[in-house]
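User: Some background: our group keeps a shared notebook of sequences we're curious about, and every so often someone picks one and asks for a predicted structure to add to the entry. Today it's my turn. The entry only has the sequence so far, pasted here. Could you supply the structure so I can complete it?
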Amino acid sequence: MNTWSKWSITNGIIVLCVLIFIAMTFAGGSEQVSVLLSFGAMQNQFVQHGEVWRLITANFLHIGIFHLLMNMVIYYQFGNLLESVLKRWQYVIVIVCAMVMTTTVSYFFADNYAVSAGWSGVLFGIMGAFIVLSLFFPQRFQHYAKNIIIPILVINVIIGFLNSGVNWIGHFGGFVGGFISMFFIAAVIRNKK
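Assistant: Of course. Here's the predicted structure to add to the notebook entry:
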C-alpha cells in the first residue's frame, strides 16, 4: 500500500472538521442545539423547508470534543489508508456517496425532530468500501478486512444499538453508500486489469 501523504484529502477534511469545531466552540459550544443548527446540522424540518445543503454540512459537525476526537482519529487511519489505494476521484466518490447516504437515510427513517451531525456515517462507508475491496481483491485486502474492519464494524454496530444517542440509521446509510459506490469502482478497476 502507498505511503500516506500529508496533503491527502483525508487530512484536509480533518483540518476542516477541527476548524469548524473551534468556530462552533466560540459561537457558544458544539453541544448547543442552536449552534449545531446554525452551522448546518441535520434536522428533517429544515430539509423539508428547502435547506437541502444540510445533507452535506451535517457530516462535518461534531457534538462535543470526544465525538470529534473519536471520529478524526479513526478517520485518519482508515481514510488515509483507503485514499492510498484509490485514485483521488474514486476516493471522493466513495466519501460523497457515504455522506449523502448517511443523511438521506436519516431523513427518511430517523426522528423528524432529532438533531444529528458527525463524520461517523462516512467511517461506516469506508468500512463498507474495504469489505468490497476484500471481495474483489482478496489476496490484498481480505486479511485486513477480516482482522480489523469487520471486528471494528461489529463493535460499532453493537454500540449503536445500545446507545440511544447514536444515529445507527445514518451509520447504516453511510455503510451502504460506501459499499455500493466502491462496488462499481472495484468492478471498473478489475475489468481494466
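Suggested note for the entry: Residues 9-192 form a domain with the Rhomboid-like fold fold (CATH 1.20.1540.10). The mean pLDDT is 91.
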